[in-house]
Amino acid sequence: GDYFALLNRCPHQSAELSMGLISGIATADEPGHVQCSRRGEFIRCPWHGWEFDIRTGQSWCDPGRISVKQYPVSITAGAELVEGPYKAETFPVSVEDSYLVVDL
After folding, report:
1. Pick the CATH number of 5-85 from 3.40.1010.10, 2.130.10.10, 2.102.10.10, 2.40.10.220
2. What is the DSSP string of 46-60?
3. CA geometry: angle at 39 spanning 49 and 44, to 5°?
4. What does the alpha-carbon distance between residue 104 and residue 44 come to, in Å, rounded to a whole number?
5. Tell me: the pLDDT tens digits for 43-98?
């Protein structure tokens, strides 16, 4: 039920983030005791594995310095957009295996 929009470009070398894996974060208190948390909240760059929080765009390795541009997202009834003074830019959207896919 939550939607997030990030620039489809890794800040490292411009790889398409949409080609990366969506995952969680693996942490360990000690060797052999790995825990996975925040499943489905991170996207990993397909080229070099840099990880970004889908909710904020912040990198996992250096959140104070590295991030992906985040765009605001809202859900508005189509009738409201037609009646208002604004013209909404639209994109084709489909759902594939429980992922919302936006074709830009």
Report:
1. 2.102.10.10
2. TTT--EEETTT-BBS
3. 15
4. 20
5. 999 999 889 999 999 998 887 888 999 998 887 777 665 666 666 677 777 777 77
